[in-house]
Design brief:
about 500 residues; alpha+beta; 4 domains; Thrombin, subunit H; 7 helices; 7-stranded antiparallel β-sheet
Amino acid sequence: MDNYNDTQYQPSDNNEPVENTDNTENEKEINIEAEAVKPPVPQAPQNVIAEITEPTVTSESTENNNMSQYQEYVARTQPVIPTYSVQTTTPKMQSNKMSPALKAFLIIALTFIGALLIAFVAYIWSSTPLNKAESYGQYYYSTPNVTIPTEAPTENNDTGAYDPDSPVDADFKGIKLESKPKNNKDNYGASYSFKHLDNTVVGVVCYPKDSGFSGDYSTQGSGIVVSKDGYIVTNSHIISNSRILYDIKIVTKDKKEYEAQVVGFDSRTDLAVLKIKADNLDVATFGDSDEIEITEDVIAIGNPRGLDYQNSVTKGIVSAVDRVASSNNSSKFIQIDAAINPGNSGGPLCNMYGQVIGITTSKIALDDYEGMGFAIPSKTVKKIVDDIIRYSYVQNRVKIGITGTAVISQEYDIKGIEIASIEKDSPLNNTKAEIGDVIIGLGGTKVTNFTEVYTVLEEYRSGDEIEVKLFRPSDESEFTVKIKLKADK
C-alpha cells in the first residue's frame, strides 16, 4: 500500500524469526494503529447502489503458519476495495396524451376548415358555366392570360356605340397610312421618332359621372391625336365600353386640359374615339402596319402610372405579327417586347421613322412571362376609327345581340358560348333560344369563342339570314334557330 510504512516492522538484528503468538495486547495495539491509517471507504455515487464485500481471512493461513505476521497484517489492514453493482434508473416517459381542451380546439378548427372547403367547392360548382365547364374569358375584352394594363373595370357598361348626337364629321378624310422612307435611313431612329410624336400623345383621365372632374379618377390611360380639331384615339376598355359612365378629361403634353366627349367605340377591336374642342393640335403620322418587319426596333409612348410619368418611352423590337391574343377580340395583334405598363393603354407604338404603326392595348401579366405586349395594327385602327369619326359606329357590322362566356364542358363534351344575356333588339328574341343555352354553331360552322363568331359574321350584312345551332344543358338537347341579322351600331 502506498501509505504503508514498512520500516517499523523489520526483523531483529540477530535474524531471529518472529514468533507467531497469541499476544492479545500486541495484537490490539497493531489493530489500533491499522485502524488509524485505514483510508476511508469511497462513497457510492448518487443513484448507484453499492454492495461492499468484506475480505475474508481464512484460518487456514494461520493454522498452517504459511503466512508471516507481516503478510497477515497486510491482509488484515489493507483497504477494502468495494465492488459496485450499478443499477440505472430509467426515467418514466411523459405521456403523449392530449389535454381535453387541446383536443376540443383541434376538433373545432378542423371542422371549421372542412366547412370552408366544402363551401368553396360548392361556390365554384355553382358559379362555373355548365357546372363542370372551364371559363375562357368574358365577351368584353377580358382575355385569358392577358391583363389589360389599366385600372378599368372589366364589366360591360355598353349603352350602345351609336349616338345620333355624337360629334361626328362625315367629311373626315380618314387616317393616312404612309410608307417607310426609302432614302437617308441613317437620319432616323428612336430619338427622331420620339421628338416627332411627343406632342401628339395625350393623357386620358376618367372620373365618376357628375363628379366635376374632382376627387379620385376611376381609370386612366393614353391617347393619340389624329386631327387638328381634336379627334383622339384610345382604347375602348379605358372608357369601360360606355358613353355615359365617366366624365373624361384630356391632358396634352403642355398640361392643357380639355373636357372630352365619346364619339364612339368598338369593343371588338378595343378602340374608341374621343373629341375635344381645340384647334391646330399636332397630329400623329401613321405608318402602314403591313410593312412591319419582325425584329425591327419600335418605341412605345404613354403615361405609365398616370400623368406623373407622362409621355414615358420604352423601347423594344417587334416579336411577331398577326398574333391572336384574345378569344374575344376580332383583331390580330403586333407582339412586342417593349415594356407596357398600366397607363400605356391607348398610346402609340412607333417605328424609327416617326410613324405610328399600332395602338398599345394589353400585355401578358403573369409571373412566368416577361416582355409580351400587344398592339392593334395601324391598318385595323384606320378602318375602325374612320367609320367611328364619320358615323359614330363601325359600318357593315352585324350582330346576334348577346353577351356570354366562351366555355368548355367535359361533362357534356361541348365547346361554345354560353348565353349570359339577350339584348332587347337581338334577333334571337322571340325564338326558342334562352339564357343558359350554348351557341355551338353559326351559319353551318362550329364556333367555340367570339373570335370565331366575328369571323363568320364578317361575311354577312344587315338583313341576311343565318342559322344558329344551340345546346341546352338542362335536357342535353341540340336545336337550331334561324335569325335575321341586324346592323351592329
